[in-house]
Amino acid sequence: MSRALPFTEASLARAIRGVERAGRFVVGVMPNGMLIVADKPIDAASLVPEIAQPFPPPPKASMVEYFNGGAREA
What range does the domain containing 26 cover? Predict the structure, then answer.
């Protein structure tokens, strides 16, 4: 058996419209119906890097070359 939600779709839509009329943006809704409000909308594209970077980055030189100043032989 599930509990009834403390809000309806219509009441949530009214609250969102009210926030938007006030010049703010709804950026999320909590499971209990609470609205997350911000001054500007979230740009979802800015949350993801444009180009995937390899992890970890490939080494540019071997450790032997690193410690010997570029010489391959010790």
Answer: 7-40
Q: Residue 2: what residue type? A: S
Nearest Cα neighbor of 7 from 29, 31, 33 is 33
The reply to whether 29 falls in a domain is: yes
Is residue 23 a contact partner of residue 41, using CB atoms and an 8 Å limit? no
pTM recorded for the entire structure: 0.55
Distance CA 62, CA 30 (A): 51
Segment 21-65, tens digit of pLDDT: 999 999 999 988 899 999 999 888 777 777 766 677 666 667 777
Residue 34 included in any domain: yes
Distance of alpha carbon 8 from alpha carbon 19, whole angstroms: 17
